[in-house]
Design brief:
Radius of gyration: 19 Å
CATH topology of one domain: Arc Repressor Mutant, subunit A
Strand content: 5-15%
Helix content: 55-70%
Shape: globular
Distance between the termini: 21 Å
Structural class: mainly alpha
Strand order of the largest sheet: 1-3-2
Number of helices: 7
Largest sheet: 3 strands, antiparallel
CATH superfamily of one domain: Winged helix-like DNA-binding domain superfamily/Winged helix DNA-binding domain
CATH architecture of one domain: Orthogonal Bundle
Order of helices and strands: HHEHHEEHHH
CATH class of one domain: Mainly Alpha
Pfam families: MarR_2
GO molecular function: DNA binding; DNA-binding transcription factor activity
Protein name: MarR family transcriptional regulator
Organism: Manganibacter manganicus
Keywords: DNA-binding, Transcription, Transcription regulation
Number of strands: 3
Low-confidence stretches: 165-175
Length: 175
């Protein structure tokens, strides 16, 4: 839905959230059409496992922002359906690491193609230089906010050092 003239001064947080929601909905609609029989939670987990083969269950919980017990149940279902497999870590047998199976890698390839289609649709009409600037800007935003992943002894967020550039940050509205 296009923004109304009075809404053009939305905050960065609102715009990123709205864009992310629309991209996710478009992806889910198209991925449902593949007939893989996977939930959106399973797609997200498969993406992370494919990107980080050998990832731990604890790391998956962190990446998916869900409780470890929920990740464990999700992994159980995906193992049962043949998408992924658990293995013992080579250095610590108490740790379980997750890998994709051939079936999972094939599904990942299909889902990645859908993601590419959604990305192309989302960026339709934007010149290549604008597309590249948008991606670089979002990468910088992620890097900057990743620095704020906790608080220091005084309870303040440890932001500020390592920012992409002060000039770039001055152009962004606060969320």
């Amino acid at each position: 839905m296009p923004l109304m003239n009075s809404d053009r001064q939305q905050t960065l947080g609102f715009l990123v959230h709205a864009a992310g929601r629309l991209v996710r909905k478009s992806f889910e609609r198209r991925a449902d059409g593949l007939g893989l029989g996977m939930s959106s939670s399973q797609w997200r987990l498969l993406f992370w496992v494919a990107k980080e083969e050998g990832v731990t269950q604890a790391r998956l919980a962190e990446l998916l922002e869900i409780e470890p017990i929920s990740v464990s149940r999700l992994i159980d279902r995906m193992v049962q359906n043949g998408w992924i497999e658990r293995r013992s870590d080579a250095t610590d047998r108490r740790v379980r690491v997750i890998f994709t199976t051939k079936k999972g890698r094939d599904a990942y390839a299909e889902l990645k193609a859908v993601a590419r289609q959604v990305s192309d649709e989302a960026l339709d009409g934007l010149p290549e230089e604008t597309r590249q600037a948008l991606v670089k800007g979002l990468e910088a935003l992620i890097e900057n906010l990743s620095l704020c992943d906790g608080t220091n002894a005084s309870g303040e967020l440890p932001c500020g050092s390592g920012r992409a550039t002060d000039a770039k940050n001055d152009t962004l509205e606060s969320a």
